[in-house]
Amino acid sequence: MLAHSTYDIAAVKYGALATMRSDVFLNYADYRESDEPTGLSYYFWVVRNGDRVVLVDTGFDPAVGARRGRTTLIDPFDAWTALGVPDEEDTTVVLTHAHYDHIGNVRRLKRARFVMAAAEYDFWISRPRQQRITRQVIEEDELAVLAELRASGRLTLIEDSQELVPGIDLLLAPGHTPGQLMLHVQTAEGGVLLAADAIHVDEELDRRMPFRHMCDIVAAADSYEIVDHLRTSGAVTHVIAGHEPSLMERFPTHPALPEHTIVLGSSAA
Ligand SMILES: [Zn+2]
């Protein structure tokens, strides 16, 4: 029974950016700390057991990433192939939010079904709010793909935190965006929180330094508290930040794609 409610998680590092701390943290100059080079890693995640496959985000379109100065380390489509992610109707794709580096390859999946927060869809698509500072992180034609999916019945919108399937909960954690989702996944090593962009890098949570792109800084502070509570209560053994470079050294590599992929929460590792 237990085997059917726990999952293995593969984290695929498909992209990278060399940047500066002042480009990572919001209003960095206000901290009066020296600026230093740093990096961001770009991930998506494959959550699976013998019964089902859940893809978490799709990465950026390599052409869009190049235009925005990001390096593609492996085309996400090639990574799906290497890891055996099926593009079938019973494959669920959770879109944690609508930024370009999370929905850029949605159009390449022809049969899979998608889930995202209604608050996210509403903010960008149903009743779009126009602010240059928030809309610089999205691609309008990629939002149009989501609208097409919605019209065709392949995109489900959720109003609140809820169970996706046994062993995987979707948790709303707004702030970075209005409908940012996290996933609480049961694994052989206990709960793993895929925080996606509710937490970009560990330091964002540990030192309460919001990321550069924020829709609601007050909501983000509440989301940090939710993540901290999950961690300190023992509900999760790992908090996985969505762009943390050090992850690749902290977890074992995946045999099918060892250069680009690590395994989270596997007792076999
Ligand atoms: Zn984002």
From TrEMBL:
InterPro entries, A to Z: MBL_superfamily_lactonases (IPR051013), Metallo-B-lactamas (IPR001279), RibonucZ/Hydroxyglut_hydro (IPR036866)
Keywords, sorted A to Z: Hydrolase, Metal-binding, Zinc
Domain Metallo-beta-lactamase: 41-243
Coiled coil regions, renumbered to chain: none
Cofactor(s) needed: Zn(2+)
Pfam assignment, any one: Lactamase_B
Superkingdom of source: Bacteria
Gene3D superfamilies: Ribonuclease Z/Hydroxyacylglutathione hydrolase-like
Family as reported in the entry's similarity comment: Belongs to the metallo-beta-lactamase superfamily.
Name of the molecule in the record: Glyoxylase-like metal-dependent hydrolase (Beta-lactamase superfamily II)
Species, as recorded: Microbacterium ginsengiterrae
